[in-house]
Amino acid sequence: MFYREAGDFKTSYVDDSQTFPIAFDRYRYYFVLVIAFGIIPFIINDYWANAVMVPFLIYAIAAIGLNILTGYCGQVSLGTGGFMAVGGYACYKLMTAFPDVSIMIHLLLAGFITAGVGVLFGLPSLRIKGFYLAVATLAAQFFLVWLFNKVPWFYNYSASGQISAPERFVFGVPVTGPNVEAWAKYTVCLIFVTGCAWLARNLTRGTIGRSWMAIRDMDIAAEIIGVNPLKAKLTAFAVSSFFIGIAGALLFAVYLGAVEVGEAYGINKSFLVLFMIIIGGLGSIFGAFAGAAFMVLLPVLLKNVLVGGLGWDTALATHFEFVIVGALIIIFLIAEPHGLAQLWKLAKEKLRLWPFPH
Amino acid sequence: MKDMADGYITEDGRKIGGVMMEMKNITLRFGGVVAIKDISFDIREGEIRAIIGPNGAGKSSMLNVISGFYHPQEGEVWFHGSKRPSMKPYQVAQQGIARTFQNIALFEGMTVLDNVMTGRLTHMKTNMLQQALWWGKAQAEETAQREKVEKIIDFLEIQHIRKTPVGRLPYGLKKRVELARALAAEPKLLLLDEPMAGMNVEEKEDMSRFILDVNDEFGTTIALIEHDMGVVMDLSDRVVVMDYGKKIGDGTPDEVRNNQDVIDAYLGVAHD
Asked: Can you give the pTM of this predicted structure?
């Protein structure tokens, strides 16, 4: 009854083009922000931070990044893991080379460095499309992981070949290193997620977003009305890699603390993030969050149900987890090929008419 | 019609200006196939210029040369009194040439409003950083452009489908949205590739009315390809007739109608 646009007349184009045109949506969004910033940091514990919230937030950033490239600009990429590695290693090199600079700035710079690398690997997209581009980005994935493995300069010649985050503080509170508290990890990630989602929304609703979508939907027509395909594709690669780089840097510095490149940033990560945006919904910021939540929460939930609820053996539960998650993905994609975002949209359409659908 | 050095007056009293675009001896080959053979014609400011001819005559290729998809092996394109260098399609768009396609080429995943807004891309000035922050300039620009787009939407009577994704629209409306997108660019020269293909009589009448209105109200020069002879003869000021890549006629509809070569091309010649 309250979910209506009726009576809520828009009298300016600014009002008409806002992100949440329905008042209820707007309040719900503010409500989520208040909970996320005002309540969760005070009640979060180590388990919830490490198993659920922090990975969810980090993958949400990566998914937003990939969604800009694949969902909005239509360029399929399998190099996400590699670009996350660039972010992680850039952050590590910056942290060790300039220990006095704030970690927040390093995280941002890691994003910019990744954007540069992304543009470089985006160059083939000007000549090749679709599956062929996917294979080219796959090459980026393997090359980058190989590079960080083979060149000792990247891991500061450490004996193990791993990189580990030194302790850094923001306003006197440790956010990296061994003594990080759950709420600090969570809050740092939350700040970046909020910022990234806001930037992504602004970019996708404006001129640049429309030129990306134009390239995605019909590149010939896009060119004829004045989209420079070179510029559109490369900016998509840059912006996408910027977000993915930040996600990779957060994954290394804040979440894991120490990483080995092949393990943390392998091809699995590329597919994981790709699944997230496909399940969440291509070309939707909400879809990126929904997909990240789905892929992060489902295994945790299953584990709790199988081991905690049904009392299964842990090893057996782990194997079954793969089977069930895989089956669910397939079932889900058959039922709703356009992802969770589409389901959400349909639900909202229904809600608008409820309880009088005629 | 009176011939004048820098223009002429049409039968219905519209004043046509000087030469806007001139094609000089264009020859376009695809390997051994000659699609366009040594064709010259001009398009004058403010006129409606039709290009007609049987299937495969090279009409669409000609439009593609104008809009920069194809680069002719020989010949020159002159625009506003200067020779145009070899250009990419998006550069041609920036010069003020917009077009529609024979098979609709809309962005199916976007709403009508977004599609038409894309048409204004060449008028957008803000950079990526300003847009990312959506502060001041970017929002002001978006609003200003939206106002212009709303005028076009109003003009073409598609207000009711403003927020509908284009993929859901019927064929006739899609054609109209495509015209709206081209118009949103405020082109000096508008190229229409078979704007009435596959339409019924009422839709054709609507589209003809829009084309005349566009020419009348915005003063847009229009070059169109069309197969419906009734429409062509009624709408256009001058007609170019092509056959097998060659120009066989050029002039007012009446002149073209009485041209023996044109009649032969359309009706066939008796071989005796």
From this structure: 0.90
